[in-house]
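Quick question, first post here. What does this chain look like in 3D?
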Amino acid sequence: MELLLDPAVWVSLVTLTALEIVLGIDNIVVLSILTQRLPPEQARQARAIGLGLALVLRILMLFAISWIIQLTYPVFSVVEREFSWRDMIMIGGGLFLLVKATQEIHASVEGDGHASDTTAKASYGAVIAQIALMDAVFSLDSIIMAVGLAQHIEVMVAAVCIAIAVMFLAANPVAEFIKRHPTTKMLGLAFLFLIGVALIADGFEVHIPRGYIYFAMGFAAVIEAFNIWAKGRRERSAPPSAGAESKKPGTRAVAADGAPSGGGGSVAGRPARQGKSTQKPRRR
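> Answer (accepted):
Ran it through. Tokens below.
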């Protein structure tokens, strides 16, 4: 009850929730791209499972916070550069995103065949495994940030639950939008590549301000929105390409054999009547 009456607790909850939602943009983009190849029903189920795993992992990591803090301690050094378990997890997750984005871009450009039911079932398990891997990477980064901003574990859990709920509401609309507009998929893959580079940089303690990354993503998304809007206007204003031409008044229809239908041509399948011959008969 004392926490509910403390204004500082509410300030930290709002701040942490906002930052968790902003960091969740990466998670939503990754979920949308990883589930694109699945059938619609399996894709929705995979996104729900992925967000559920993200919630469970974040809460478990919060209750194991002392172990999480130990992941930031140096484990080994290379050329006077110390690496911790967190650094290696970030580098591994970033490399995975780089490889995945490259494979998806290659498949989108070169094209691939239709997958069979066996391939689809196998890919569903692979997608769930990939989502679980990326949930672990994003959850670790999220929890380390939460520990630095809040001091009460109840506030951290509440912020994580609110952020996951917002992500759950946004995941399906974002994925459906990417599916309806194929050009946005390439944009999402570029974002995936950018997120991978940022994770690798974090692993080497080269922190790229997230504001720069999200500004670039937002600017590119606005430009793509204008492109989609302009394309829709062109499609609505374009004249119909199919359909027979309307007859103009004062013109006669032309039959298939080139004869006009209103004169000596055949009407309704009957031969035309021959007119009287004007030639005079010969005299004997």
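Residues 74 and 83 are 5 Å apart (CA to CA).
Residues 114-122, 242-269 have pLDDT under 50 and may be disordered.
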